Amino acid sequence: MKTMEQVQRLITEKKFEEAAKVLDRAISEYPNDPAGYTNFGNLLIAMGENARAVNFFKKALELDPSYGSAAFGYGNAQFERGRYAEALTQFADAQRAGINDGDLFYMIGRSASELGHAGQALAAFQRSVELNETDTEARFQYALSLARLGDVDAAEKQFLTVIEADAAHADAYYNLGVIAAFRDQITKARRLLHKALELSPNHILAANGLKSLDKQQTDRQN
Q1: Distances (CA, A) of 19 to 3, 8, 36, 52, 126
Q2: What's the mean pLDDT when you consider all of the chain?
Q3: Whereabouts are the TPR repeats (predicted)?
C-alpha cells in the first residue's frame, strides 16, 4: 500500500498515532516533498489541533507555493479556527493552483456564509452541487442559501432532494416545515416539524417551531 493511502486509511480509522509515525518516516525520507507536510497537517486537523496544522501547511507551501492541496488544507485549518477570511484566501489560492472539486467550493461556501457574503456562498454551494450531485450536505447548504435569499420555491426543491437522498436528515425536514408554515400550510408544517423531532429528539428549533404554531392557533381561537 502506498504511504499516503495507508495514512488516509489510518486517519479514517482514527489511528492517529500510527498515522503520525508513518508520516514522520515519510518526511524524514523525503524532506523536500510537500505531500508529507500536507498530510501531516490534515492529520492534525482530524485530531483537532488546527493551530499546529497551519505550520505544516506553511512548510509545504514554502517548498512548493503552487501546491494546491496544501493551500486547501491551510484553508480548512483556518476555517476550523474561525478565521474565515483567511480561509477564503487560501481556498482561492488552491483554486488558482488547479483544485476544482466539490469539496473546495463547499468550503468556500461555508466560509462565505460565515462572513455574511450570501451571494458568494450561494454561487459556491451551487457549484459544489454541480460538481458532486451526491453530496447531500452541500445540497443542504445550497438550499439554506436559497432560502436566506428569499427563493423559497427553489429552496424547497433542494430540501426535498436532500431527504430523497437521506431520509434521516432532520434539518431538511425542519426547514421544509418552516417553508410550509411561511405559506400558512399549518397541518403540513406540523407534520414536517414532528418528523424532524422524531429523527432528532433534541432538535430545539423544531420544538420551538411547534410551540410557535400552537401559540398562533391559540391566538386565532381567542
Answers
A1: 10, 8, 11, 16, 35
A2: 94
A3: 34-67, 102-135, 170-203
